[in-house]
What we know:
The relative contact order is 0.18. α2 packs antiparallel against α3. The chain is built from three helices and five strands. Helix content is 46%, strand content 28%.
Amino acid sequence: MHVPSADTGGATLFREVALSRRRARRRSAALDAKLRPLRRLRYAVKDRMASKRVHLFVKGRVQGVFFRAAAQREARRLGVTGWVKNRNDGSVEIVAEGEEDSIKEIVGWANHGPSAARVDHLDVRWRGYTGEFYEFAIVD
């Protein structure tokens, strides 16, 4: 293996490569600094304008028919976060957050639920988006 000595320009080559890398990092950092406000704005607008939260109370034959598992599967398919749980009165409660179109779809789905369920009444309460959930979970 040949190692260049200082008199053959190895040290000069090393300095040029290091300088080139530093310049590239500076350019990247400068571009990042210019784009950062735009990224923040994009996420802020997305969160405020298109994201919604809904609180649902589903009544009927909705326990013992895999309603919660089906709701979780549907929510994950739609990219919705939140939770679903059985209530002591025999109903099911759902809190869901996500894009407005996806939330409307989950509300539409909750009107009928899985095939074994019978939904008699759906109470829909729109709430302000909080962004507190990372996934859609079944709560005991």
